[in-house]
């Protein structure tokens, strides 16, 4: 029995479909590998240095992102609605305009203060029958204890203005009062303070007179001075304050001396004038470093 051999053209027609299918499968596999394989080139380690084989081929896979809610090991996100702080010594942002994380510096406590003033005074009662308003100048100097209390020494000079004198009489007098004047200050607004306090000390006066009905000469008075001060301060600079001062003085007489122009000094401690009541208004400047 003779074998049947396929002719060449018949053999090609038999195997051509199989070869075409194998070629298509190989081409698809190569294309898929080209899309998923990383590009050739030097790989970089985490510190930026080239390191062969890093990262491993195929990492990370295309389109990979951490899943929602993913947290690295050891980290736990805060629960919903959580807000940090406040913590001791820590200020939330915006708590103080222009300052982040710390409160504003507290102003330094004032220690020394100097308060000169100038104004007018007026005698009230019987002592002011022939005396008009006169000039006043003086000042307080002292030290503050805390933010509200101060101890001050005060000296005041009053120029007495005699008026309505009979005939050709003349009279001039200068009073000097001195003593202790503590003050208690109360802040009422930003940069504004009100201060109140008593005053107690002494006073002396020196006078000179000419008269056709009374003796010509000069003399002096002395006694105790009790009163009170009230002041308002408005800050106009880092160390400067402006304001006003109202004062009341009750001056009692302890002794009186008179020396005629051609005679000897005579002094008395009885039959003295009644006490003087003196009101005063003044403008002040306070220097308080």
For the biggest sheet, the summary is: 11 strands, antiparallel
Overall average pLDDT: 79
**CATH fold title of the domain at 113-287:** Porin
Instruction: Kindly state the number of beta strands.
Output: 11
* Unreliable segments of 5+ consecutive residues: 1-6, 39-44
What's the helical proportion of residues? 10-25%
Which CATH class of the domain at 113-287 applies here? Answer: Mainly Beta
Basic shape: rod-shaped
Total helical elements:
1
C-alpha-based Rg, rounded: 51 Å
**What is the chains' assembly state?**
single chain
Q: From the coordinates shown, what is the CATH architecture of the domain at 113-287?
A: Beta Barrel
Structural classification: mainly beta
What does this structure look like?
- The chain has 289 residues and is mainly beta.
- The protein has a domain at 113-287: Porin, CATH 2.40.160.
- The protein is built from 1 helix and 11 strands, in the order H-E-E-E-E-E-E-E-E-E-E-E.
- Strands 1, 2, 3, 4, 5, 6, 7, 8, 9, 10 and 11 form an 11-stranded antiparallel sheet that branches.
- It starts with 7 loop residues before the first helix and ends with a strand.
- Mean pLDDT is 79; it is low at 1-6 and 39-44.
């Amino acid at each position: 029995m003779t074998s049947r051999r396929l002719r060449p053209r018949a053999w090609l027609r038999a195997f051509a479909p199989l070869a075409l299918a194998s070629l298509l499968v190989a081409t698809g596999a190569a294309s898929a590998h080209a899309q998923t394989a990383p590009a050739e080139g030097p790989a970089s380690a985490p510190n930026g240095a080239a390191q062969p084989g890093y990262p491993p081929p195929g990492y990370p896979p295309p389109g990979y992102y951490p899943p929602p809610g993913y947290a690295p090991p050891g980290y736990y996100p805060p629960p919903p609605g959580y807000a940090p702080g406040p913590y001791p010594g820590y200020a939330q942002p915006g708590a103080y305009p222009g300052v982040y994380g710390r409160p504003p510096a507290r102003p330094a406590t004032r220690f020394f203060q100097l308060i000169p003033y100038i104004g007018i005074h007026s005698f009230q009662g019987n002592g002011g029958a022939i005396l008009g308003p006169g000039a006043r100048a003086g000042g307080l100097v002292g030290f503050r204890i805390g933010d509200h209390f101060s101890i001050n020494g005060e000296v005041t000079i009053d120029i007495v203005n005699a008026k309505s004198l009979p005939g050709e009489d003349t009279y001039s007098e200068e009073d000097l009062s001195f003593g202790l004047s503590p003050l208690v200050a109360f802040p009422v607004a930003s940069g504004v303070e009100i201060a109140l306090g008593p005053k107690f000390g002494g006073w002396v006066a020196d006078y000179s007179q000419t008269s056709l009905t009374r003796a010509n000469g000069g003399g002096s008075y002395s006694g105790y001075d009790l009163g009170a001060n009230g002041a308002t301060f408005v800050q106009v600079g880092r160390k400067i304050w402006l304001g006003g001062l109202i004062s009341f003085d009750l001056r009692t007489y302890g002794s009186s001396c008179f020396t005629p122009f051609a005679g000897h000094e005579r002094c008395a401690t009885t039959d003295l004038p009644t006490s003087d009541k003196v009101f005063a208004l003044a403008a002040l400047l306070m220097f308080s470093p």
